[in-house]
C-alpha cells in the first residue's frame, strides 16, 4: 500500500474532502497546512498573527515558516502510520525541502495524488463553500448541504465562510497555483510519483478510484 501521500490540486479541487475520507478509510494522519494556519490564527499565536495577513489576501505564507511547521509535524511519531499532506508543498523550494527532510526522517513520499478540475467549477465550489469552525469539515451551500443549516453534521460545530473564500482572494490563490504550485506536477512526474485523477466525477467516485489505487 502507498501510505506517504501528497495531495495536490488547485484550491477547490477537493483535497480537503478527499483527505478526510481517506484518513478514515486508511488510518492515515491528515496534515493540512491551511488547517494548521487557521488553528494558529484562531488561537492568535505568533504564527497565527504572522500568517493571517498573507492568508486573508490569498497570498502564500513565506516558505521558511511553512517548511518549519511541516518539519515539526512530520517528525512526530504518529506519522509512522502514513500521512496525507494536503496543501504542502506549494512551491519548488518547499518540494525540495520536503525531499530532503523525508529522506532524513525515513518517511519518503510514495505517491503524489493530483486532482484535476476546471476553473469555472473551482469558482463555483469555493464561492459556495462553508467550513466547520470546530473540525474543519467542508460543506457547500448548494451541493453539499449539512442536515441542519449552519451546523456541522460531524461535530455540531458552527459553519462559516473562510475569509479567503471571496472572489478577490480566490483570484490571487489561483494565480499562485498556476505560477508557484502547478510546476511541481512536472517535478513529481520526473520523480515517477505523479498520479492524476479527474475531480469532476463527484466525491464518492473520486474516493473509490483513489482508494483502490492507493491500496495496490
Ligand atoms: P486552498 O487549498 O483551498 O487554497 P488551504 O486551506 O490549503 O486552501 O490554504 C489556505 C491558505 O493558507 C493559502 O491560500 C495560503 O495562504 C496558506 N497556505 C497553506 N499551505 C501553504 C503552503 N504550503 N505554503 C504557503 N502558504 C500556505
Ligand atoms: Zn465539525
Features:
alpha/beta; Rossmann fold; 5-stranded parallel sheet; 3-stranded antiparallel sheet; 8 strands; binds adenosine-5'-diphosphate; binds zinc ion
Radius of gyration: 16 Å
Q: What characteristic shape results from the CA principal axes?
A: globular
**Helix/strand class:** alpha/beta
CATH superfamily: P-loop containing nucleotide triphosphate hydrolases
CATH topology heading: Rossmann fold
* Cross-sheet strand order for the largest sheet: 2-3-1-4-8
Question: How is this structure best described in words?
Answer:
- With 216 residues, this protein is α/β, with parallel strands linked by helices.
- The protein has one domain (4-118, 175-214): P-loop containing nucleotide triphosphate hydrolases (Rossmann fold, 3-Layer(aba) Sandwich).
- 48% of the residues lie in helices and 15% in strands.
- It has helices at residues 15-26, 33-42, 46-57, 63-74, 92-104, 119-127, 167-181, 183-190, 203-215, and strands spanning 4-8, 29-32, 83-86, 111-116, 129-132, 138-140, 159-160, 194-198.
- Strands 2-3-1-4-8 form a 5-stranded parallel sheet, with helices on both faces.
- Zinc ion binds next to loops.
Amino acid at each position: 500500500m502507498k501510505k506517504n501521500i501528497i495531495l495536490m490540486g488547485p484550491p477547490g479541487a477537493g483535497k480537503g474532502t478527499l483527505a478526510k475520507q481517506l484518513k478514515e478509510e486508511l488510518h492515515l494522519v491528515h496534515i493540512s497546512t491551511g488547517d494548521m494556519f487557521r488553528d494558529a490564527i484562531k488561537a492568535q499565536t505568533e504564527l497565527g498573527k504572522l500568517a493571517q495577513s498573507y492568508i486573508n489576501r490569498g497570498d502564500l505564507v513565506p516558505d521558511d515558516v511553512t517548511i518549519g511547521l511541516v518539519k515539526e509535524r512530520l517528525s512526530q511519531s504518529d506519522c509512522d502510520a502514513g500521512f496525507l499532506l494536503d496543501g504542502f508543498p506549494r512551491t519548488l523550494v518547499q518540494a525540495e525541502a520536503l525531499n530532503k527532510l523525508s529522506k532524513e526522517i525515513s518517511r519518503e513520499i510514495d505517491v503524489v495524488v493530483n486532482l484535476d478540475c476546471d476553473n469555472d467549477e473551482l469558482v463555483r465550489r469555493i464561492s459556495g463553500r462553508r467550513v466547520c469552525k470546530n473540525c474543519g469539515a467542508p460543506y457547500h451551500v448548494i451541493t453539499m448541504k449539512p442536515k441542519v443549516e449552519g451546523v456541522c453534521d460531524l461535530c455540531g460545530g458552527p459553519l462559516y465562510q473562510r475569509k479567503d473564500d471571496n472572489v478577490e482572494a480566490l483570484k490571487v490563490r489561483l494565480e499562485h497555483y498556476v505560477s508557484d504550485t502547478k510546476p511541481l506536477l512536472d517535478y513529481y512526474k520526473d520523480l515517477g510519483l505523479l498520479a492524476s485523477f479527474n475531480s469532476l466525477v463527484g466525491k464518492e467516485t473520486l474516493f473509490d478510484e483513489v482508494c483502490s489505487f492507493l491500496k495496490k
